[in-house]
Amino acid sequence: MSSIDIRHDHAQSTEQARASVDAIARKLEERFGVKSAWQGDRLSFNGAGVDGGIALLPQQLHVTAELNFLLSAMKGPIEAEIRRVLGERFS
User: Fold this and answer.
1) How far is CA 57 from each of CA 2, 7, 31, 41, rounded to the nearest angstrom?
2) Per the confidence metrics, is the pTM higher than 0.70?
3) CB-CB neighbours of 36 under 10 Å
4) For the domain bounded by 2-90, which CATH number is listed?
5) In this structure, are residues 66 and 2 in contact, taking their beta carbons and an 8 Å threshold?
6) Which domain of life is it from (predicted)?
């Protein structure tokens, strides 16, 4: 198993950040079948070889994920894509 741990600063309100994270979650479900659910200010997700979450913190997102053996080989590109999407949605 391989871990991803990313912190990304943002200037959105909690409501805006939650809406942006919801949009990301919908894309993940459409493209990869990843299921997600909010638990307070943390969106947990799992499926398709990944288990993790996105925590909404004041002015920061904290993305964590555990990748299964097969996805571990693609950790670099997966992490780069996460950073790209966060940059687009939260910069």
Assistant:
1) 24, 10, 26, 8
2) yes
3) 19
4) 3.30.310.50
5) yes
6) Bacteria
25 SS3 class: helix
Q: In which residue are the tokens 């571990």 written?
A: 72
Q: What is the per-residue burial (b if ≥16 Cβ within 10 Å, else e) of 37-69?
A: eeeeeebbbeebbbbbbbbbeeeebebbbebee
Who contacts 30 (Cβ-Cβ below 8 Å, separation ≥6)?
Answer: none
Residue 83 tokens, joined = 């950073």
DSSP-derived letter for residue 86 is: H
